[in-house]
Design a protein that fits this description.
The chain is of the alpha/beta class. It has 28 helices and 14 strands. Strands 3-8-4-7-6-5 form a six-stranded mixed β-sheet, sandwiched between helices. β9 and β10 form a beta hairpin. α13 packs across α14. The chain is globular, with a radius of gyration of 28 Å. 42% of the residues are buried.
């Protein structure tokens, strides 16, 4: 629809749809009077804003503004909050082979997902997966008249980072947008749109602000969804930011681009730049299958296209792509094409500009500033310190930011005098370079390992270190084996294939293997067996709600509110329970949570750590999995079978404490003692 409209036609379509929405208001309501004013006075201004500001964006690496309708490639979504799938080299090669055959994981496009969603629409995906462009496309397509859930709507697109740290939240920002395009009284019109169900509110980038601000936004959006059930509320973020209870939203996850979408992306990207180069890149990709895995997200494909468009080679690792991209933006491409720029940083080499950018990125990231202005940079004093470090005279913050934006394209101006790095992934990469270059890895682990927004930085640091042995040892000490977020982060670090010695990797793997074995050992009277790739943990005595309590621990850990930690249990009460032969309830819940939610990532970690059979603990779980058997999911199940009975057709190992006859020993409490807590 959009790709067939020129700018004038798009504005006309948005204006017509805008007027039609307001004409549907009940003529007897107070909103009718406001609708008359909006239809006659402000439709043109709203349509122009949607078409020129929301409907266009800067094509990465070129500095050109392009219409979203001509460059958008359809994303494929899957329902539910799927966990990140960690793959071995053989699995990656298998997936590449499937993609070369033109196949990919099954899913639906965003519009179909919205039609199948009865509540709010939550779009989650990794860095650079195309979430922002997808919301832009949804907003402009809806504004041009495409019905969403059976009716036309007025879309309002908000970016969280544009108002992060301000007092106004979502509702206030939406009203502010209407006021900015001349729709007054903005609050009354917004209320009328929401009540009538004509509002389509899209909130982009929940992960691009701090945790407290995220929590406030989520609570407000849930109130809006509850109060205005007929309006359509859309939200986008990275997966961990949406890995909390969202009762008002249905979650959809972006899938990696399959081969047809990747080829389509390259053709559309180069159709706006140089079609001949695009076809040559496609021919090269066809001859080098290893390059296909880099194109799993629009961001990495954009970097590949930008590098190739500037006649530079295309590397084979994501962090190398980031290096090439940053060096290219900071002057490498200009030097290659013999272009000189008048900039306050012109006298500096590309390497020194790179140092300035990494110091600036690190200081701002440490301060929680994704979007920033001159006052933020001046307040940190980072430019004076880096100037002294490089032996240069100082620079004015405004000049440096304006140069990184206007001359080099490393920054973008989100609003007047308000900047951010061109993409959060590049911001994080520069932070990782600063950490490695200044040998601050230990400080990173012990200060920020448990902070979600630092997780990608930690993975990048592991990749960049020339010897990551000490870094892995520090991570082993900082990670909590019962905390699924910590375990998954360690798995991501190991999966990044850092340069490290085999003994250190095996030490890390054995540490988590012992913790997992201990968690299973503590579970009361259980047995294990495999059904395909599902690990079934069965209790003949009944779990007594243990699985439900373990889920509460898991959700509390994800929410980060401290309820999932052992700290709320006094040490004395734990010792007292153990002295009486009883398991502390909280410890048992944590071990059950570990078994349910940490088993799969820890087992994948052991494969990556190349843990030899002689190093694997002698425990029922690992005996069951000998011979290369795999586990993809874990379930708790209650059974009426006695403890000595065995299920036919499946290999089964008994866990938990048993006497010589295979029965669980009875607990004989002393006078005044309570029954065991199982």
């Amino acid at each position: 629809m959009l790709d067939s409209l020129d700018p004038t036609g798009l504005i006309d379509a948005i204006r017509a749809s805008f007027k039609s929405v307001f004409s549907e208001f009940n003529s007897s309501s107070e909103a009718h009077y406001q609708a008359l004013k909006v239809r006659t006075v402000n439709a043109e201004r709203y349509a122009s804003y949607l078409a020129t500001r929301v409907g266009t964006y800067s094509l990465f690496g070129t500095g050109r503004n392009v219409p979203v309708g001509r460059s958008y490639v359809r994303l494929t979504l899957s329902s539910g909050a799927e966990r990140l799938v960690y793959r071995s080299s053989s699995e990656i090669e298998h997936d590449i082979g499937r993609q070369r055959g033109g196949t990919g994981r099954e899913g639906v496009d965003p519009w179909t997902a919205i039609e199948r969603t009865v509540r709010g629409f939550a779009l989650q995906g990794g860095a650079g997966s195309g979430k922002t462009t997808a919301l832009r496309h949804l907003a402009v397509t809806a504004a041009a008249g495409r019905p969403a859930r059976g009716r036309r709507r007025v879309p309002i697109l908000l970016s969280v980072r544009d108002y992060a740290g301000t007092e106004g939240e979502v509702w206030g920002a939406a009203a502010g947008f209407l006021g900015d395009v001349g729709i007054e009284p903005a609050e009354a019109v917004l209320q009328a749109l929401a009540v009538s169900g004509a509002l389509m509110l899209l909130v982009d980038g929940l992960d691009e602000t701090d945790g407290q601000h995220q929590a406030r936004i989520v609570r407000e959006l849930e109130r809006i969804v509850s109060r205005y059930p007929h309006s359509l509320i859309c939200l986008s973020a990275r997966p961990l930011s949406l890995d909390v209870a969202l009762p008002g939203f249905d979650k959809w996850e972006t899938l990696p681009l399959a081969l047809p979408e990747r080829i389509d992306f390259i053709r559309k990207w180069f159709s706006l730049v140089d079609e001949g180069k695009g076809e040559r890149l496609i021919e090269r990709i066809d001859g080098e299958p290893a390059m296909l895995d880099l194109g799993g997200t629009p961001l990495l494909l954009s970097i590949v296209c930008a590098l190739y468009e500037n006649d530079l080679d295309v590397p084979s690792e994501p962090d190398e792509l980031y290096v090439r991209c940053v060096e290219g933006l900071l002057g490498g491409w200009d030097a290659f094409r013999n272009i000189a720029r008048e900039s306050p940083l012109a006298a500096l080499s590309v390497r020194k500009r790179h140092i300035i950018a990494s110091w600036l990125a690190a200081e701002l990231f440490e301060a929680g500033r994704v979007a920033f202005d001159v006052r933020d940079v001046d307040g940190l004093g980072v430019l004076s310190r880096v100037a002294e470090f490089l032996g240069c005279s100082g620079w004015e913050a405004g000049d440096v930011l304006a140069s990184l934006f206007g001359h080099f394209g490393l920054l973008v101006e989100r609003s007047p005098a308000k900047y951010s790095f061109v993409h959060l992934s590049l911001h994080e990469f520069l932070v990782a370079q600063y950490v490695v270059g200044n040998r601050r890895e230990r400080e990173l682990v012990w200060q920020h390992f448990r902070e979600e927004r630092w997780s990608d930085v930690i993975v990048l640091v592991a990749r960049l270190l020339p010897n990551a042995d000490d870094f892995l040892v520090e991570i082993e000490g900082a990670a909590r084996s019962h905390h699924v977020a910590d375990v998954e982060l360690v798995l991501r670090v190991v999966d990044a294939r850092p340069a490290s010695s085999l003994p250190v990797r095996r030490r890390l793997g054995r540490h988590f293997a012992l913790c997992l074995a201990g968690a299973f050992k503590s579970l009361p009277g259980h047995r294990l067996h495999l059904e395909g790739t599902d690990l079934i943990v069965t209790s003949a005595t009944g779990w007594g709600g243990l699985a439900a309590r373990a889920k509460k621990v898991h959700l509390a850990q994800r929410a980060g509110d401290g309820a999932g930690e052992l700290a709320h249990v006094e040490r004395s009460s734990v010792d007292r329970a153990k002295s009486k032969g009883r398991r502390p309830k909280s410890v048992l819940e944590h071990n059950a949570s570990t078994a349910l939610y940490c088993t799969v990532p820890i087992l994948k970690m052991l494969d990556l750590c190349q843990l030899g059979e002689e190093s694997i603990p002698s425990a029922p779980l690992f005996q069951l999995l000998s011979g290369g058997r795999r586990v993809e999911r874990v379930f708790f199940r209650e059974s009426a079978l006695g403890p000595e009975e065995v299920n036919e057709g499946s290999r089964q190992v008994t866990g938990g404490r048993r006497n010589s006859r295979g029965r669980k020993p009875r607990h004989r409490p002393r006078r005044g003692d309570r029954p065991p807590m199982e």
